[in-house]
Amino acid sequence: MRNQQATQLLSELSHPGRVAVHWPPCDVPEQPIEDIIPSNFLADEAPKLPELTEGEVVRHYTNLSTKNMSVDTHYYPLGSCTMKYNPKRNERLASLPGIVDLHPYQDQSTIQGMLQLLYELQGIFSEISGLPACSLQPAAGAHGELTALMAAAKYFKSIGEDRKVVLAPDSSHGTNPASAQMAGFKAVSIKSDPNGGVDMDDFRKKLTDDIAVLMITNPSTLGLFEKNMREIADAVHEKGGLIYLDGANMNAILGIARPGDFGADMMHYNPHKTFSGPHGGGGPGAGPICVTEKLKPFLPSPIVEKDGDRYKLDFDRPDSIGRVRSFFGNTGVLVRAYCYILSHGPEGLREVSENAVLNANYLLSKVKHFLPVPRGERCMHEFVASASELKKERGITAMDIGKRLLDYGFHAPTVYFPLTIPEAIMIEPTETESKETLDAFVQTLFKITEEDAELLHEAPHTTPISRPNEVQAARSPCLRADFCSS
């Protein structure tokens, strides 16, 4: 529901006759529009676009930008999504003319620099993961999951096996079972044990001979490293299955542990989480995958190969699952990741993870005294607190706390995920926040838990939109301003 503080829409600011630009006279012969576009594709009338001056348009979007929360303006303790500060250096480098002016249809001889960059990035991702083959094509983390599972399906078909079961812990990201289903597998959930790890008894019971893949996030969404990872991987491999590592939480183990070394056969990266690509807003993402040598033939085509002192796109891959993305992937995001990795180097990447883990454990040590942390006295890069006691005693929910934080200038943590923790509040500080910021966040979080419940139920109080009916918004979205109530 919009309130009086809401910014007017451009259509509401419009006045007939106002223009932002005067076009020069046409310097080519004019043609009737029907000679260019068949009449059956033309609308009956021109669209009613807002009529505004340039100043009004610029002011409108500038004012809108001041209402946004972003990692450049606020602290984002958003668990599972690693909303760390993105160095502007990488943005500048990715915007260099020699990069942004390339066209994907150029002859390969004219894009040797970009092909070299992508080839080197494939090798870097392989080295970090401990898995020798890489595809940069997938456009997001979930897309990487789907791509890897499609490659796995074709691998099993190539050896004459019809395996259909994909196992995933109940604390996994929801994209895991969704990707499995889309790739033609049947997703089966594994229970968690009381400590937040995989319930080994339930795992062994469900580890049947028709297992294709175990998808596991390690470190987990609870911020815990799976202590039985090697035993789990060995058991799956003994059955002929594969291990898929959800790489969403690589920010915790860069330069410390490699998924390929602890049993993974395939994994994806989230460059926007781990390697400073822009995050969110519906913009372009990337989800590169790394796999073992036996899965390499099934990776999407093309991949970048080196031929002598030249680089080429290798399309001659008869076992490939084919393209999963146009051209070579979202190279702009990949360039940012390349710059970030080279800027840090191996020791710097390890320091990234060490500081992320240090910050998370510092926050955990403070928060657990007023918000219980049900799983683990120590964590990796994130931890999950619970507001269940507050809800039981005073009616204060995780949603109330998250919404109230907005009034104090903090973005809300992830709430109600993972589902294994009631009233979950998932907190990730990342390595880029200072002790002073973390202390201020803890103090504010504690203050909110002491506030009046009715005040929290109505929060936030300082934003243009307070608390919309999210169920109604999801079921009956208002997609056109004409149909919205004021």
TrEMBL record:
Keywords: Oxidoreductase, Pyridoxal phosphate. The keyword Oxidoreductase applies. GO terms for cellular component: cytosol; glycine cleavage complex. Residues 150-280 form the Aminotransferase class V domain. The modification N6-(pyridoxal phosphate)lysine is found at K273. The keyword Oxidoreductase applies. It catalyses: N(6)-[(R)-lipoyl]-L-lysyl-[glycine-cleavage complex H protein] + glycine + H(+) = N(6)-[(R)-S(8)-aminomethyldihydrolipoyl]-L-lysyl-[glycine-cleavage complex H protein] + CO2. Residues 353-455 form the Glycine dehydrogenase C-terminal domain. Its cofactor is pyridoxal 5'-phosphate. InterPro entries: Aminotrans_V_dom, GcvPB, GDC-P_C, GDC_P, PyrdxlP-dep_Trfase, PyrdxlP-dep_Trfase_major, PyrdxlP-dep_Trfase_small. GO terms for biological process: glycine decarboxylation via glycine cleavage system. Its EC number is 1.4.4.2. Belongs to the GcvP family. C-terminal subunit subfamily. The glycine cleavage system catalyzes the degradation of glycine. The P protein binds the alpha-amino group of glycine through its pyridoxal phosphate cofactor; CO(2) is released and the remaining methylamine moiety is then transferred to the lipoamide cofactor of the H protein. The glycine cleavage system is composed of four proteins: P, T, L and H. In this organism, the P 'protein' is a heterodimer of two subunits. This is Probable glycine dehydrogenase (decarboxylating) subunit 2. It comes from Bremerella volcania.
